[in-house]
Predict the structure.
Amino acid sequence: MIMNALFMLAVAQDSVAYVAQRSGPPATEGYMWAGYAITFVSLAGYIVLMARRIAKSKHP
């Protein structure tokens, strides 16, 4: 399950990174950093959620 979530986030980050401009090549740098930030926040939130669920299940 974790691998599925990581794969989904990687695909989303990669697609965010290559948004084409109207003229010229895609502007990748700003979109890359935005994609990395979104991915990091999503992963951190998922890890915190799972840690809370594990802690709650051990201490009813």
